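FAQ: What does the model actually see?

It sees only this:
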Amino acid sequence: MMEALYFSPILLGLNLLIAVAIASTALWFMSRPIPGPGYWMVGMWILIAGVLLFLGFMATRNPVLNIVGNALQLAGEAVFLLGVFRFMDRSIPYWIIPVSVATIVGFNLHYWINAGNSDFLMMIYSLIAGLLPVQAVWVLLHQRSDVATRPARLLVGVCLLLYSIVTLLRAWFSADAWLSGQPYTPPNESFSYLLPYNFAIPALVMGFIGVTLMTMQRILASSRALEDELKRLATVDPLTGALNRRSFNEHFDRELHAAMRRQSPLCMALLDLDHFKDVNDSQGHQAGDEALRRFSDLCRTEARATDIFARFGGEEFVLLMPDTSLEGARTILERLLQGVSRIEVIGPQGPFGFNASAGVSVCHSGDTLDTFMHRVDKALYRAKNEGRNRVSVEP
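And it is asked to produce this:
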């Protein structure tokens, strides 16, 4: 028996499965919390347990080892395939585990109780095993939203399809042997039994390489998304979504040089919410934050594509308007303040509105951000002193 096993592809297939199980365990450990690898790991170890029990049956002819071994092999394959659904964030058809296991256990019991035909039993087992991957193959080949993993998904889909075809071929050969009344052949000498060890298990190994690539591609995509989010957080005010002061300074330098090169006007405005401290005191800071968000949303919506809007801190915002005359900037700001007066926020004390004031100036030759900002701040101060809810211009 040991000599026959040594020269049989069964031992090589088992070793390949153990290697995949170890690799899938490492993949699960390294890729947490990405969903899917945990299923692949558990499925492979269950499959190996089933193969070992079946090898024990071949050595002892113990019916229990045969029944449990077949059941575990199908259960392991099913769990592995469910990992595909988990990875793709699809509804997981858990029902395939009890249905597959119950079906093979039922036919296995019938085989031992009624001295059934082994080729018939192998046909049933192979039909179940060959049909298990069909749903997963469909999901892998027809998923369109997950662009990042598409190449690896195609590889996994093709490998699982090959696995399914080979296993169904074994079912066909077994059916032919059963119907033609061929004599019993030991599993380690059976062409139909050894067919998966020669072709299906290598396809499964390639499929695991594919799911590893899928996982790596998902990790890389997540890393790029995280990098983009970190870049966004570095340039955007987290409360209002407006640019932060540091990012505005970088934009200002570029726009200032462009305006000087083109000899075009560049206007800048400071906007400040009127009596904002009273809003926080009467309505609470959460309502005040909502007022800031609503104000920022309005300004970013009304701003032109070339305008640059940023939060400088507290309730103070800045709007940079390239290629805009002082009169044109004033018109934009007056329209903006009219929109602010129509905002209504629901606070703990009921609905409330608010107004804003703005100061604006145009860039002079030789201006820096500090000199330009000084004039704009002076204009805003005048707007506050003249009654608020208005635009003041500093030439």
